[in-house]
Write a structure and sequence with these properties.
Blueprint lengths: L4 H6 L1 H4 L5 H9 L2 E5 L5 H10 L4 E5 L24 H12 L4 E5 L8 H5 L4 E4 L4 H13 L4 E6 L3 E7 L9 H5 L10 H4 L3 H19 L9 E6 L4 E6 L7 H8 L2
Parallel strand pairs: 1-2, 1-4, 2-3, 4-5
Antiparallel strand pairs: 5-6, 6-7, 7-8
Helix pairs in contact: 4-5, 4-10
The protein binds zinc ion.
């Protein structure tokens, strides 16, 4: 892929980085990333991925923009209230960067359709707000050997991890959470969340996606970052591969 003059200008701050360069930028432009949830995490993530020139972004979200979303979902404006989020995201990204093709998928992803919706993506970024969806996305990503960047927030706390659980020393999402299909769900509507926190976590998730695509440095696979914004402390825990993990075992037995 040859970059145009406009692209050399637009992405100059990437291209000058030895870790990205023209070749890395070309990889971003030819990449296909699936983003689950255009919410508090998805909004800044989609904006940074689009600004970075990720060529194809699939946005999977079945919701419409609500007024109470605008406190943190910076992808949308007041005029978008009531519009499907995936389509409003497409309009926002079209304003930002004509190099990016955003594919709006105005549907709920689940265990039955995840394989189809994620097929042939290079990386999946999960910023959804419920555990059942996280498991479905994680299982599909593990099966397809697709890096999964997973970000989540509580009121003042964020978590970030990257999973490449098909690798023999790296955990999958189920190594961390087990098979707890019936874990209690609490979402932002019930607990509240500081808006800027979702910006921090969504931006870091975008960085992990860009890292996986180029790639550079050391990713979060095998580690979990916990951000405590109440005391402004960030810690990183090791997440070992669970030898009894059903997700990893299924992968090993897969044809
Ligand atoms: Zn596992």
């Amino acid at each position: 892929m040859t970059l145009t003059d406009d692209q050399l200008d637009r992405y100059a701050r990437h291209i000058i980085l030895k870790e990205i360069g023209g070749a890395g930028q070309a990889r971003l432009l030819s990449a296909d990333v699936a983003v689950i949830g255009a919410g508090g995490i998805g909004s800044p993530a989609i904006l940074y991925l689009a600004a970075a020139g990720v060529g194809t972004i699939r946005v999977i979200d079945h919701d419409a923009v609500a007024l109470s979303n605008l406190q943190r979902q910076v992808l949308f404006g007041t005029d978008d209230v009531g519009a499907p989020k995936a389509e409003a995201a497409m309009a926002a990204v079209a304003r930002l960067n004509p190099d990016v093709k955003l594919i709006p998928i105005n549907a709920r992803i689940d265990a039955d359709n995840a394989g189809l919706m994620l097929r042939d993506a290079d990386v999946v970024l999960d910023g959804c707000d419920n555990f059942a969806t996280r498991l479905a996305v994680a299982d599909a990503a593990q099966k397809m050997r697709m890096p999964l960047v997973s970000a989540a927030v509580g009121p003042f706390e964020g978590q970030l991890a990257t999973y490449r659980g098909w690798e023999k020393d790296k955990p999958c999402y189920r190594c961390l959470v087990g098979a707890a299909e019936d874990a209690p769900e609490r979402n932002c509507a019930e607990t509240g969340v500081i808006g800027a926190l979702t910006g921090v976590m969504g931006s870091m998730a975008a960085l992990e996606v860009i890292r996986a695509l180029v790639p550079f440095g050391e990713d979060m696979a095998g580690r979990l970052m916990i951000a405590d914004l109440m005391s402004m402390r960030f810690r990183t825990l090791s997440v070992p591969k669970d030898p009894a993990c059903p997700g990893c075992a299924a992968e090993l037995c897969a044809p």
